[in-house]
């Protein structure tokens, strides 16, 4: 399933979630960034070395 990391009140994340909503793609979103934190740890750095949101993972493909 498509996975998205990012708080939904981020402008960058809103664009992604809008497209996912329009296309009705099954997905799961994790709240990270802003007051949620979670960007400055090794687990997140491993999936997105930029340590920013959003990060999108589709199978083995990761985009951030
Ligand atoms: N992915 C974009 C930019 C990503 C970006 O600027 N993300 C902001 C979101 S507003 C961010 O992660 N800010 C830190 C935070 O929200 O905690 C790029 O690399 O050009």
Summarize the structure.
The chain has 64 residues and is an alpha+beta fold. It is 30% helix and 23% strand. The two termini are 17 Å apart.
Uncertain spans:
none
| Annotated CATH topology | Glutaredoxin
Instruction: Give the strand order, joined by hyphens, for the main sheet.
Output: 2-1-3-4
Helix content class: 25-40%
| CATH H-level superfamily title | Glutaredoxin
Strand content: 15-25%
Count of runs of 4 or more consecutive helical residues? 2
Query: Which cofactor or ligand species appear?
Result: glutathione
CATH architecture: 3-Layer(aba) Sandwich
Mean pLDDT: 97
Query: What is the CA–CA distance across the termini?
Result: 17 Å
Structural category: alpha+beta
Rg over C-alpha atoms, rounded to the nearest angstrom:
11 Å
Overall morphology? globular
The CATH class turns out to be: Alpha Beta
Main sheet makeup: 4 strands, mixed
The total domain count is 1
